[in-house]
Amino acid sequence: MSQVQLTALPHIPIIAAGDDLIAVTLAGLSAAGLELRTGDVIVLTSKIVAKAEGRVRRLSQIHPSPAAQEIARYAHKDPRVVELVLAESRQVLRIRPGVLIVEHRLGFVCANAGIDHSNLGADPDQVLLLPADPDASARRIRAALIDQSGVEVAVVINDSHGRAWRLGTVGSAIGIAGLAPLTDRRGQHDLFGNTLEITVLGTADELAAAASLLQGGAAERSPIVHIRGAAYVAGDGRLQDILRPQHEDMFR
Amino acid sequence: MSQVQLTALPHIPIIAAGDDLIAVTLAGLSAAGLELRTGDVIVLTSKIVAKAEGRVRRLSQIHPSPAAQEIARYAHKDPRVVELVLAESRQVLRIRPGVLIVEHRLGFVCANAGIDHSNLGADPDQVLLLPADPDASARRIRAALIDQSGVEVAVVINDSHGRAWRLGTVGSAIGIAGLAPLTDRRGQHDLFGNTLEITVLGTADELAAAASLLQGGAAERSPIVHIRGAAYVAGDGRLQDILRPQHEDMFR
Predict the structure, then answer these.
(1) pTM of the prediction?
(2) Closest chain B residue to A203, measured at CA
(3) ipTM of predicted assembly, 2 dp
């Protein structure tokens, strides 16, 4: 009988710059009574990774460019936040009141470059950028977990993304280590021997969405989730594998 | 400690038109040793719901219109399949070789109106449409499960959807009963008392994506998944709640 078990690691402290997420994850696994097994996946929110990396910026130290001020007027946003959004983006795709939809410098499309005001403490001057290189963060955490446990695991860093066409955010993978983010079933056959039509499964994004059920969006109470029993193809995947090449994207 | 447990119900038979999915679900729960509890969620693939509803069509009985033939030339698709796609759609958004991106008559955006060749048996003349009214199917199944079990559960019907910007399909909710598909956290506060920025979570879609990890896309081996432990708001939600109104959609 196939089962997948997701566990929100308990007693995760509030994370600050410089904190060791590997030690935090290992302590959380121990508190949950979990010993890592081959095939387990650890999903961490972008937020705690970014906080551990010190990706906090102080708005009072940002000097918005004329372009940022102009966009801020259209978007009804703080020009200093817009300045940070532009610095974190390759391209602005849409501007609407309250939101800039951008291609993030990491390659994915998201709102406001993932820049977040919430859960940074009582200080409204602080905002949080996304991690500098989530694939590298995932690889580093994975290597340490394998070193400590002796078993092959995968790591996903997830972020809550809005979508075209549908309302509500869903957890999406922005950093990957130890798995192929897409499961390519092309050439495989279904129960009757027909070639499968739906052929490439977004496995890393489904893992990210599943973990998000326990992370509750912006709240930081369960930022690290352990997943056991999910089928995936082990491998050296990375975020880039999930991103639709711009020239193939029908909805830019 | 928060946990979510997903179980692929075992021994689900191949479903044919007229089969009783309620009896099949109850037998699967029994085979899994699961007794329904309040708050459980049952996720069924669109495919088995459609098959039980007899949504199979024979291509040899389809007579494509001139418009369907014209589009089929552009799209390099069977004109009879295009005829069915058009009949199931409100609007064609994009045409590319091999794919029509449409607004389905149910309101969501998807490829080829969700019309599927695979897992219909050895007969290449058969294709499968999506369920006629997935919300109604979910409500009917939910009512029977509550009647049988005496506890409040939710039902989601999911379908594998492609996305703008990202590669790979993810399980998405197309039928809903017994839950609010969006969890609205606006006005709630984070750990430090700040108002939350990411405010509306796509809970039904995250449940659909999580279940999809056990359903394996087009294969039909685990079409019914039981979820226990996921937090959601009980309520009379429906598919329409998740669909971004066209006038607010920046990516049509």
Answers:
(1) 0.95
(2) B213
(3) 0.95
